[in-house]
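explain this:
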Amino acid sequence: MFDKVLVANRGEIAVRVMRACAELGVDTVAVYSDADKHGGHVQYADEAYNVGPARAADSYLDGEAVVEAARAAGADAIHPGYGFLAENADFAARVEAADGITWIGPASDAMERLGEKTHARRVMDDADVPIVPGTTEPVTEVEAVTDFGDEHGYPVAIKAEGGGGGRGMKVVESAEEAAEALESAKREGEAYFSNDSVYLERYLETPRHVEVQIVADAGEEGEGPADTSDVVHLGERDCSLQRRHQKVIEEGPSPALSDELRERIGEAARRGVAAADYTNAGTVEFLVEEDVDRDPAEPLGPDTPFYFLEVNTRIQVEHTVTEELTGIDIVKQQLRVASGEGLSVSQDDVGLEGHAIEFRINAENAAKEFQPANEGRLDTYDPPGGIGVRVDDALRQGDELVTDYDSMIAKLIVWAGDREECLARSKRALAEYDLEGVVTIVPFHRLMLDDERFVAGTHTTKYLDEELDRELVAEAQEKWGTESSAGDDGDEEVTEREFTVEVNGKRFDVELEERGAPAIPTPASGGSGAGGRKQRPPQATSDDGGDDGVDVAEGGEAIAAEMQGTILSVDVAEGDEVAAGDVVCVLEAMKMENDVVAERGGTVASVHVGEGDSVDMDDVLVVLE
């Protein structure tokens, strides 16, 4: 087993991995950005290293900085968690090439094979795993989309090669939509995955999202499973309750599958993983065709069509559901496989007991299209407890919400002897969740536990987007919701003091914050103060607040961001004429493209953002006159 593991992540998943390490007697190392210097994962770890400023690209996504932190700490392994660099095959290869450091995850070449969706489809097809009718090679021309639609019928799904979770996927309802959808999917693929290759699939009208958790040994040769005997499936999770292809509630076992269908899907996952020479933990995702007219008491039979969707080459947010059902610590199995000890379980050891549901406790307002909070402090934070209740988190009462990354505060996982009891226990646990100062989707979860379709288990991935009454969501937010409080008092002086200290011959840089004290004068540096990093342009203002402001002429329009996100494209330049309703830029937020449009129109006086810039709510993007 390893001596010291660096966790290349933050928040609850970093703490989750560190807890498994602690139980195995393994020391842990945290990495953190400037925004996370007080983060829960930093406090939990045995030691911690700063890897850069708040911007993820300059910190958590800086593979070189992460590996250097591992070297400095003397870590002999790196666990990526999920998100950030977890599915980056180049980063995995960098770690594999680093002397004395082991990558806790699948081999980089297996990640690359399965990360390219057309390649993954070929692997699965060869392993006799059903795949959705579609292309096995990338498409570049709009004629390929329309020809596919003519042959297989509309709608058609255009998907990015490196995509997942709805990113880089566009649905084409007719030939007229093909050109715009193709361009948009390619743009998202390039922006998120540095790969604009896309492929086509038949778009299923009534799908359920069912995924199989697997863990795979490296085999006697250490190069991947010799056959399916080295691959163990830990049952399935049903993730059909989604918004814009993003999972909201996950549960297991699926309330829709018969035992025979469950076994067919599980064995298909084992075959596919073995054929791909895949090791460590992963998830094989499938789409299962739901019969919308079936009796909820009659599960889908063994002949129900199901199709391979993708492999997630990492541990997933919802791995906790499987752990509650099987009693198997998946992170510990990851550590065992990576260290060479091998799996401690076989397929015959696996049994599913009871029912489990995971609720993502996100800092979002479901009544406002799940808009993420852009500030807040946990004035009250008292999570639920009792039998069958688990909470994975990294925040504590009084903590400020860090909005530079994802919106997740915690995960609530509820287990019970059967689904009916689990739903009742979930109601109790969510009602006990005392959380004030930050808006969350707890009210939405409470609404779902009384929703007829969800309780019956007949919902599909389209239910939330196409059928749920939005008024009910607003009423739930009004009844049970909280609002985000302001963060620290902006008028309070905060002085940061930096010291270098030496303890037992080892030097440490120490930062102290003193609130309410006057700032310490420092000599002018004569530079930009940005350490050579690119700074954002000045923000527009309608007053004369200083030389750094940009005035908005009387009668002009300052077009601001309605939410936090990343600029995917800027569609105007200074001097352009725009009309009301014209798109001036495209903003990615909540993993979806959002067109930013002019309300009144005019001439572009100035543009204050560029492609790839991160923006906060109310930041001015474009000024018209």
DSSP finds 16 helices and 32 strands in the chain.
